[in-house]
Specification:
alpha+beta, 8-stranded antiparallel β-barrel, extended
């Protein structure tokens, strides 16, 4: 008699085990991917949509301050790997022929990736001497996504105890 009950009991126990394991709330862990770094987002080619100067000195980017490139002018800023970059400017001369100028720069992200340091070196003639000049710009990243970015540059002027804070902006869209 025991042998006739053993098989159904074992089968019943197996079914209980299968169904009870399948119905238990399983702990699932979802891995939230890290957001892309600003270095990753900046990499590529960007087209300048407009520039703006803080004409009314309110520290805000106002619609009436936005200035698109003039007809026939385009500017592209490319951030390449290993801290290299280029600025490509295109414009039409008086006869309508497109002129291109390319400048190279080095770049680094600063301040927890919220500022870009851009260094451009070029040669210049001063009298009979040729000297190497170095321009350094620090640009605040005000907004950055995969397709769009807005940068700001804050200038502080102080003279005879009077301080003026002035902003300028660039808005760009990614083209590559």
């Amino acid at each position: 008699m025991t042998s006739k009950l053993t098989l159904p009991i074992v089968a019943f126990g197996f079914l209980l085990l299968v169904f009870s394991c399948g119905n238990k709330n399983k702990e699932t862990t979802t891995v939230t991917p890290e957001p892309p770094s600003n270095e990753f987002l900046l990499s590529g080619k960007w087209k300048v949509l407009f520039s703006a100067d803080d004409d009314n000195e309110n520290g805000q980017l106002d619609e009436e301050e936005k200035v698109p490139p003039e007809d026939g002018e385009e500017m592209y800023i490319s951030f390449l790997p290993e801290g290299m970059g280029t600025v490509l400017s295109k414009s039409k001369d008086q006869s309508g022929i497109v002129q291109e100028e390319t400048d190279e720069f080095t770049w680094t992200l600063l301040n927890d990736q919220t500022r870009i340091q851009i260094i451009e070196e070029y040669t210049d003639s001063i009298g009979t001497r040729v000297v190497t000049q170095r321009d350094t710009s620090i640009i605040d990243i005000l907004y950055l996504s995969e397709n769009s970015t807005t940068w700001g540059n804050k200038y502080v002027y102080a003279f005879n105890g009077d301080t003026t804070i002035y902003w300028s902006w660039l808005q760009l869209e990614k083209v590559q």
